[in-house]
C-alpha cells in the first residue's frame, strides 16, 4: 500500500469540501503539536509532505493525502492550545468534531498521545465523542525518543487504564518515534490491514 503513489489531494475547510466518501480513510487526531503531521511524513517516507512546526496550531485545515487508489490518509488540525486567533480556532474545532463524528468512510481514527504526557482531558473528550459516534479509534503514542524507559512505562500504564473505559477503543497501542522511525513499520501494517 505504501509503495504506491502518495500525494497531497486537498485542504478542506468545510464539511461540503470533503472528497466523495468512496474509499477507506484513516485520520490522525490529537492535541496541537503532538506530532500528527510528522507521523504522516514518517509513514509515507516523504519529509515535507505534511507541514510540521514547533508552533502549536500549524495544521489548520483537514488535509487529504491519497495512498494508492484505495485509501486516504487525513491530517487533522490539533485540539487544545493553538497559536491562532480564537474565532479561527473555534471554526476549525467545530469542523474537526463534525468530521470525526460524521464521516461515513472513516474506518479508524488514530488518536495521537504524547509519550511524555499520556492521556489528557481534551483527549478524553475526543475519545468520548468517538465512543458516541461508534468510530473505532486506536491510540498512537508519539515522541518515544523523548522519554526514558521508566517514565514511559508509567505513561503506558496510564493510557491502558484510560482506554479500558472506552467502548470504541481498538485494542493495541502503537508506540512511535517519527524522529527515529520506531513503530513506523508497525503502523503501516495496521493501516494496510484496514480495508
Ligand atoms: P499541529 O498541526 O500544530 O496540531 O501539530 P502536529 O500534531 O501536526 O505536530 P507536528 O508534526 O507539526 O510536530 C510538532 C513538533 O514535534 C515538531 O517540532 C516536530 O519536529 C516534533 N516531533 C514530532 N514527532 C516527533 C518525534 O517522534 N520525536 C521528536 N523528538 N520530535 C517530534
Ligand atoms: Mg499538523
From TrEMBL:
Cofactor(s) for this UniProt protein: Mg(2+)
Family to which the UniProt record says this protein belongs: Belongs to the TRAFAC class TrmE-Era-EngA-EngB-Septin-like GTPase superfamily. EngB GTPase family.
InterPro entries on file: G_ENGB_dom, GTP-bd, GTP-bd_ribosome_bio_YsxC, P-loop_NTPase
Keyword Nucleotide-binding among record annotations: yes
Alphabetical list of Pfam families matching this protein: MMR_HSR1 (PF01926)
NCBIfam families: GTPase_YsxC
Keywords, comma-separated and alphabetical: Cell cycle, Cell division, GTP-binding, Magnesium, Metal-binding, Nucleotide-binding, Septation
Gene3D superfamilies linked to this entry: P-loop containing nucleotide triphosphate hydrolases (3.40.50.300)
Role summary: Necessary for normal cell division and for the maintenance of normal septation.
Residues covered by the EngB-type G domain: 22-195
Gene that encodes it: yihA
Organism expressing this protein natively: Psychromarinibacter sediminicola
Protein name per Swiss-Prot or TrEMBL: Probable GTP-binding protein EngB
GO biological process, any: division septum assembly
GO molecular function, one term: GTP binding
GO cellular component, one term: cytosol
